[in-house]
Amino acid sequence: MARKVAGPEIEQLIQLLARLPGLGPRSARRAALHLINKKDQLLAPLAAAMTAARDKIVICETCGNVDTSIECTICADPRRDVSLICVVEEVADLWALERAGVIKGRYHVLGGTLSPLDGVGPEELSIAGLIARARAPEVKEILLALNATVEGQSTAHYLMDQLETCEVTVSQLAHGVPVGGELDYLDEGTLAAAIKARKTL
Amino acid sequence: MTSQVDPELQPARHRLWIARLRATDFRNYEALSVELDDRSVVLTGPNGAGKTNLLEAVSLLAPGRGLGRAQFADMIRHGAAGWALNAILHSAHGEVEIGTGYRSDDQTSARAVRINGETARSAGALGDYTRTIWLTPAMDGLFTGAAGERRRFLDRLIQSLDPGYRSNLSRFERAMRQRNRLLEDGEASSSRYEGFETQLAEAGTAIAATRLDTVTRLARLCDTPAKGGDASPFPWAELVLEGVLEGRLLNEAAVDVEDFYLETLARCREQDRAARRTLEGPHRSDLIVGHGPKGAPARRCSTGEQKALLIGLVLAHAELVKQQSDGYAPLILLDEIVAHLDEARREGLFHEIERLGAQAWMTGTDAAHFAPMGAHAQHFRIENGGVCA
User: Fold this and answer.
1) Given CB 3.0 to 4.6 Å as the disulfide criterion, which of A36, A56, A148, A154 pairs with A68?
2) Side-chain half-sphere CA neighbours of B178 within 13 A
3) Do B316 and B351 belong to one domain?
4) Residue A187's closest chain B neighbor by CA?
5) Where is the domain boundary, B275, B307, B324?
6) Chain B interface with A: residues with Cβ < 8 Å
7) Domains: count for chain B
8) A117/B181 touch (CB, cutoff 8 Å), yes or no
9) C-alpha dihedral (B114, B117, B120, B124), degrees to nearest 10
C-alpha cells in the first residue's frame, strides 16, 4: 500500500478515479494531479458536467439506451427505419455500431447475456420488452448483434426460440474473417466459422 | 528441405533449442543465467537442489501452466514479489526472445508474455514458437490412475500438435459449466439449455474428432518399430480411445455425430438433473493403453514396463510433433526418468533423442547414468539454486 500523499479530499478523488476502466492507482494519481493543475479550465467544468449528467441521464424506456430524455435520441429519430431492431448486449455495443453508422434501424439493449453461473436468467435481461416490440406490426426484422462468446451465442439461441412466435425475420451477425484480416493468422475456430457462413457469389 | 546426405544428422537450422535461459526469483533461483548450445542438457545434483524447477522454467516457455500445473503465485521465490524468465530460443522462426513472468500484485491470475520484446495477448502465442513435452515422476501412475489424468495427458499431447485445440476445450468447458449450473438449479425450460447444448455439441464433436485423429496417427507411429523389426528398446503401445463420440466418429460423419450428441444432451436432461452434472460427452472419454508385444493392458504391466511404455509413447509423440513441424522436434523434458531404466533402455533413450534431433532436458541424482551421452550433451551440476558446468 502506498503512503497517502495528500489530504482526504484529494485522496478520495484519486481513489474514485482509480475505479474508472483503464485507470490504475498510478494513472489515477496522474489524472488527479492534471485536474488539480487545471482547476478552472478542467476540474470545475468536469464537475459541472458530471453533476448535470447525473441529474439528466435516464434509461430509454423503449430500447434501454442511455440518454437525457425518456425516449432516447435514436428512438425519437423519425428518419430511423422502424422495421429493423438490432439487439445488443450493452450500451457500449450500441455505441460501437453507431460509430460505424451501419444500422439504419433502432436498437434494443439486453443488459447482458444469459449466464447461469452469474445468476443471470431471462428475467434479469430486457427480453420481455424485446418480444413485445417484435410483435408490433411495423417490425419486420430482428438482428441479433451479440458477442461471439459462449454466453452471447447461447443468448442468441434463446432469443431465436422466443421470437419464433413473432412474425419477424431473425438474423445474426456473420462470424468469420475480419475485414483486412489474413487467413494465415486466423485460428481454426474462426476459419471454421467463416467456412460455415460462406456465401455464394 | 531435409538433407539428403544423412537423414540421421539434423541440420542445425532444423533444431528447436534454447541458447540462453535466465531466471529471476523463480522458485529457488534468485538470479540464474545459463548459456547453451543445441545439444541436450543434463542436470544432476542432490535432491531439492532445484533440478525440476529448471525443467519447470523450460516448460513455461510453452503455453500452459508448466509441468507441475502449479499456480503462478507459488513459483515466486520466497520473499520476492514476482518471478521472471527470459530465454533465447532457436525455432522454426529463427532466433526468438521469450520473456514471461508473474507478479503477486498483478490483478490477474495469468502470466505476462513477451515475444521479441512485444507483449503477447496471451501465453497461447508461445505455441507458435515452442513445442514442449515432458515426463515426470508424477505421471508414473498414469495407466493405473483415474481416466481424467489420461485425458489430460492426451489433451496436452494434442495441444502441442494443434494449438487451436485449446480454444475448443475452453469453449466446451465454459458451456458445460453453464449447463451444469442450470442442472443444479433444477431449471426445466428446454429453451434455457439449447443454446449451451448446441455449443457443447459443436465443440465436443470437434474435440473428439481431433483426439481420434491424433490417437490414430500416434498409434501408427507406435506400431512402426514393431513392424520394422523392433529396433526400439521401448515396447510399442496399443492405443484405443474410449468415448461415446470418439466411437461414433469411427464410422459416422462428424455432422451426424454432432446431431447425435445434441439429441443425447436433450434426451438425458432428466438424468443429468438428478446427477446435477452432464454425464455424457468427451469429458468422460478415456485413453486405453495396451502393451503391444504382450497384448496386455498397461495397467496390468509391471512398474518398469509401464514406464517403458510411457517413454515409448512420449517418443512417438515427439516424432509426430517433429513430422508436423517441418522437422523440428519438440523440447523433451525428462524429470528423474533415466535413473529407473536399465542400461540398454538408457542407451536406447539417448539414441532416440539423438535420432529425433531434440534438445532434451534430463535430470537425475547420479551423473554416471548419463555418461553414455558423453559429448552429445551439456552436463551441469545443480546445487542450492546455482548451476555449474
Assistant:
1) A56
2) 29
3) no
4) B164
5) B324
6) 162, 164, 167-168, 171, 174-175, 177-179, 181-182, 185, 187, 191-192, 194-196, 198-199, 206
7) 2
8) yes
9) -50
Residue B386 DSSP one-character state: E
A136-150 pLDDT, tens digit per residue, is 999 999 999 999 999
pLDDT above 70 coverage of chain B, percent: 94
Of chain B, the percentage scoring pLDDT greater than 90 comes to: 66
pTM of the model: 0.80
Q: What's the Cα-to-Cα distance from A164 to each of A161, A167, B50, B132, B359, rounded to whole Å?
A: 5, 8, 63, 50, 59
B349-377 pLDDT per residue, tens: 999 999 999 999 999 999 999 998 889 99
Q: What φ, ψ does residue B114 adopt, rounded to 5°?
A: -125, 130
- Among A144, A150, A159, pick the best mutation site for testing chain B contact (most B Cβ within 10 A): A150
Length of chain A: 201
Q: Are residues B270 and B152 in the same domain?
A: yes
Identify the domain boundary among B297, B324, B351: B324
Question: Is the Cβ pair A188, B195 closer than 8 Å?
Answer: no
CB atoms within 10 A of CB A92: 9
Residues in A 138-157 with any Cβ partner in B closer than 8 A: 150-151, 153-157
Q: Write out the three cell numbers for B273.
A: 438433473
Q: In order of start, what are the domains of chain A with their CATH numbers?
A: 8-56 (1.10.8.420), 79-200 (3.40.1360.10)
* Chain B, nearest residue to A119 by Cα: B181
Q: What confidence score (pLDDT) does residue B231 get?
A: 60
pLDDT, tens digit, 9 for 90 and up, residues B15-72: 999 999 999 999 999 999 999 999 999 999 998 899 999 999 999 999 889 998 899 9
Q: Which domain holds residue B225?
A: 145-324
Average predicted confidence (pLDDT) for chain B: 89
